[in-house]
Design a protein that fits this description.
Rossmann fold; 235 residues; globular; alpha/beta; 5 strands
Length: 235
């Protein structure tokens, strides 16, 4: 993972949720890759409408060669996550013990599987995903070991006519470091959406909003999107 990419030859798929981490990952891929293909999933998340809007706007900004929008309903049917089940209360604290209730069971595996299928068709050599392990919420499918083992699965479960690598360029960065890198790359943070619960104006109180606001404060920048409430960022 995270190998040096040859700009003259690489064809890559970027899994783009529309959030801050995937935005910066897209900006890195845009810098390092010759041809980009963007993939997004609507899976019944509470902010599905707003995340899709961000994806469309980011496609206009980066101008990938192709884009795909997946419409999945099984995550909402399965439930088990505050992101897909309105009856489960969203957390406001960024410090949670164990697996957080915002974890969507095995979501990244589903996303990667879809991207691998498309990569086989496109003969794309890389799949970029904006997972963060070190300064994230403790999701099991955001760990380096998960992506390393998934690469082995790709090797054994595809035609294997060419290598397909998983690229996780922000995996070991803090949220503040991601903001700084995005600023250096000219990433359009005003187009990214991180809020877990609102589709119009970011709430400012959910865990994701608080992490984003804190990251911008620590990086020395002002978050360009409006918030309904701007919480203190010195937690």
């Amino acid at each position: 993972m995270n190998k040096t990419i040859n700009k003259q030859t690489e064809r890559a798929i970027v899994l783009l949720s529309g959030g801050m981490d995937s935005l910066v990952t897209a900006a890195i891929a845009n810098r390092d890759c010759r041809e980009l293909f963007f993939m997004h999933a609507n899976y019944g998340q509470l902010t599905e409408k707003r995340e899709l809007q961000s994806f469309i706007e980011l496609c206009k900004h980066f101008k990938p060669k192709q884009s795909r929008i997946l419409n999945w309903d099984w995550f909402a049917q399965i439930g088990g996550s505050a992101l897909t089940d309105p009856s489960i209360e969203l957390p406001s604290s960024t410090e949670q013990e164990g697996i957080p209730i915002t974890y969507v069971p095995f979501r990244n595996a589903n996303l990667l599987a879809a991207a691998v299928s498309w990569a086989e068709v496109l003969h794309a050599e890389a799949i970029y995903i904006g997972a963060v392990e070190e300064d994230s919420s403790g999701y099991p499918d955001c760990r380096e070991v998960f992506f390393r083992d998934f690469e082995k699965l790709i090797q054994t479960g595809t035609c294997n006519e060419f290598p397909i690598h998983i690229e996780t360029p922000v995996l070991h960065l803090s949220k503040a470091e991601i903001v700084k890198l995005g600023m250096e790359l000219g990433a359009p943070f005003a187009l990214a959406w991180s809020c877990y619960q609102d589709n119009d104006v970011a709430c400012g109180v959910c865990a994701s909003c608080r992490l984003r606001l804190k990251a911008f404060a620590q990086a020395g920048y002002k978050d360009p999107i409006p918030y309904r409430i701007r919480q203190a960022t010195d937690e």
